Input
Amino acid sequence: MTDQTTKASLPAQSPPVESPPPGKRRSPSDWFKGDGAEPLRRNLGLIGVLVVLVIIGAVTRPELYGDATWVKNNTFTILQQASAIGVVTVGMTFVIIGGGIDLSVGAIIAVAGVWSTTLATQSYGTLGMIFTAIVVGIVVGLINGVLISYGRLVPFIATLAMMVAARGVAAQISGKQTQVSANTTINDIASTRPLGIPLLVYILALVVAAGWVLLNRTTFGRRTVAVGGNPEAARLAGINVKFHTVLLYALSGLCCGIAAIMLTSQATSAQAAMANLYELDAIAAAIIGGTLLSGGRGTIIGALFGVLVFSTITNLFAINNLSTEAQNMVKGGIIVAAVLVQQFRFRSLTQLLGRKPVS
Amino acid sequence: MTAPDPARDDDAGRHPAAETTPPAEATADGSPGDATVPPGAAVPRQRDGDPQSDGEPQGERDGIGEVVLRLDGVVKTFPGVRALDGVQLEVRAGEVHCLLGQNGAGKSTLIKVLAGVHHADEGTVTWLGESFAPASPQAAMRAGIATIYQELDLVDDLSVAENAFLGHEESRGGFLRRRSTASRTRQILARLGHDHISPRRLVRSLPAAGKQIVSMARALSHDARLIVMDEPSAVLAHDEVENLFRIIRELTSHGIAVIYISHRLEEIRDIGDRVTVLKDGRTTAANLPARSTPTRELVSRMTGRTIEYVFPPREAKTGTTPLLEVDGLTRAGEFADASLTVKAGEIVGIAGLVGSGRSELLETIFGARRADSGTVTLNGKRITTIGGAVKAGMGMAPEERKSQALLLDEPIYRNMTLATFAGFARGGFTDAGKERSAAAQTAESLELRPRDVSRPVRTLSGGNQQKVVVGRWLLGGTKLLLLDEPTRGVDVGARAELYQVIQDLAAGGVGVLLVSSEVPEVLGLADRVLVMREGHLIHEAPASEIDEATVLDLVMAGSLMEGEPA
Output
């Protein structure tokens, strides 16, 4: 994990315990160089992009940005739009760090969403619907994982096939109809605002936090990095690489199940075409967030910033009444630019702080 | 044997760049190539009188012509190592000139100088009467020197004809002339006696022997006048070798010279005309007659200890009961009926050539490959999977350190705890602090440099990377350590340290099973030596009762020679 990669370049003899020497006051620059600021340092590029986007928004629609209430609500709109895709991106980041790819996330959301909103499922109530969406997501993810680990299919092919097949299943279940959710509890998730902040944003924050802990503080996360970084070394160190790979795809499926409920709540309905192209957005967000497509390295916080950049762009175009076509063109450019900035940032910053680059 | 040649014979083809000695350590540990031999001193050591240098080789065939290639005092240095240290070589048209030498003697580097991959630092290379310094492999090819590497450099998804003419395709106006290419390829294949191979066939579908034919067809498509073959028989079955020899004879009868590298003495006797022996980057004997030179003389030219192998003195405190018991272990096509034991505190060495099945045997013992038959038990526990092996207290440092053992971008401590981090964790949550301090302690005891365990492993030298891998198993309280080529790509200073580490381990009661292609290493470290050849353990002896020449002879010829070697 880059997390540690950068720690690694701390001045020599850094003690095992990650605290500053006692009795010494820390200046802001010390703080910036320390471990606590690591996520900030690493994501400076993306934060910069976000700031630029907000400035563009303020310059193009000054009358809107002059209104504090509007700014607050607009920020919540951006976060709310980022919530479902953000949850999916957390799962995707794990899969990519573990050396795989999951092209089927959008389709899994569709199956989970459609399955949990059939009249039969809705008759089991709120928990029945949530349970169904999550179990369907996990099961489809498990199928992906088993095909890849034990069927030895290339992840790209296996999940591509699942992407096509799962959309077919979703269309079959729904009879190509939009299934309206009659469950008010589900529908209210999107509109509830505890402490003035949308519940969806809490869910996103919770999933991101759980993802961060899972990746950085648990044996599961350590195995993920090892499996993606060097599968043979992991295997020869006694790690069950195949089983772990299955778990990774199941985790991605779980995230899709959660996202399916969130999207169903937002639209108060589910249909076979929902979450279209989510796989591309999730992969792009993970990559611009600093996750290595070849595996072994990546961060959850970076991926979150990636998602936020995308939803801010969408928002920027919406408030300026511009077309989605133009929006997609800019998105493509942003992906390239963000990755370039990331590379540049890493090199220049390590030089700036007098650290040895990792390679 | 010699200083660690950056272009080690057995792996140079695979990782030409990866194995070069890290310059940082070379300087830190006092550069080993520092023995700065003045150029003038780089003369072949010709002990025991003159080895019939330019004399008429006995049993010489007709048709051996004038000298086409002559190397004089060729020197090639890599950071920290003098890979070639004054090589003399003379090759005549129409002869099969055999190159003999142990791993690291400089054969691969020599080939690469001829092939235009490396450039000689000193000395002269004369090709067809003119000074020769090819700027690139293409230039060497154009000049008429073709090289067939052990790892064949063919493109699997192109056809036979496309491979034969790769890089010099026949074309007109940018369009390939496929028909004419095919017919020229067909002619060449016919000349090689393999007209049954279709020029349109995909190379992927050919067996190893067929691929070698395609490599030779490529050489001939360049009108090569010298073909260098690096252990061509290593990938071939017995009857295919016969066929290879027929082709070589056909080539030489047309005046093409062949430089033939092999570890198998019987092949050299069969196909060779003259032999040049390399040791430590120098020619120790030139132009010996291939058929009549006694094995003992050839072997003695290749052997002799050099200062690079310094083994700390040690008293073996071996346990009495076997720790590891391997019984009748077999994997079809790799090794058969392997049985061995390792006791606690004992170092057992397996000597064998690349391809003898030694690495496969080690990996199967570790559970990384599934045995066809036979059993592995550690402390009475059957081992069938890696997980079981690790749990029972087995650890392995695999052959390819970088690709099989390390997470290069991860910090040292995480690499060290790769097999044990779950043990440091509580309820699934890792404890980085504990891991760091445990790793730091191990780093201390291994004298790892740098000591800072948060540095990424990529920044370490080969020797220190190997210490990290060994440290990984020390942290887990490993009882039996399997070491596959532990000093590959490790420079001289660090080698001695690794030897010390291995011996300390054994002194602490750990059983060690060691595989190495460097015979002095096996003899110097091990208490007991097993010799492996073509998938069979053919000989076992206490290290004190066997010497380098005997092992080499067993490894190459498979039989004990008579009398004591020089």
In short: Chain B has 19 helices and 22 strands.
